[in-house]
Amino acid sequence: MTNIKIQEVQFRDAEFICKLMNNEFVMASLNEVPTTVTDWECAIAEWNQDFDEADYIIFCDAVPVGWIAINGLESKDKKAFIKMIAVLPEY
């Protein structure tokens, strides 16, 4: 993989996150259940109101390949943590 970058999650990314999180391997690895694009649109709307969390799409060149969520950004001890990271299996 070359030219890896991250970009803040936007409302339009709900379709990609849905595809990612409904991938058979990802669901099995994370013990997740199937979700809809609407589920992710609602989640993104909530994330946009939560200043303690930041969510990013991971790109390889211009192709979205994963999602990372970081929490604890406003914690008193200043210790943020990765809440979720998922990458398409082919990457």
List the helices and strands and how they pair.
Layout: E1 4-8, H1 14-21, H2 24-30, H3 37-47, E2 53-60, E3 63-71, E4 81-87
Antiparallel strand pairs: 1-2, 2-3, 3-4
Helix pairs in contact: 1-3
Structure summarized in a few sentences:
The protein is built from 3 helices and 4 strands; from the N terminus they run βαααβββ. The protein has a 4-stranded antiparallel sheet, covered by helices on one side.
Number of E-state strands? 4
**Biggest sheet: strand arrangement:** 1-2-3-4
End-to-end span in angstroms? 8 Å
Give the low-confidence spans.
none
Radius of gyration: 13 Å
Rough outline = globular
Helix content: 25-40%
Proportion of residues in β-strands? 25-35%
Q: Give helix and strand order, one letter per element, not per position.
A: EHHHEEE
Folded structure, characterized:
By secondary structure, the chain is an alpha+beta fold. It is 29% helix and 32% strand. It has three helices and four strands. It has helices spanning 14-21, 24-30, 37-47; strands at residues 4-8, 53-60, 63-71, 81-87. Strands 1-2-3-4 form a four-stranded antiparallel sheet, covered by helices on one side. β2 (53-60) and β3 (63-71) form a beta hairpin. The longest helix is centred in the middle third of the chain and has 11 residues, at 37-47. The protein is globular, with a radius of gyration of 13 Å. The mean pLDDT is 95.
Key features?
91 residues; alpha+beta; four-stranded antiparallel sheet; 3 helices; globular
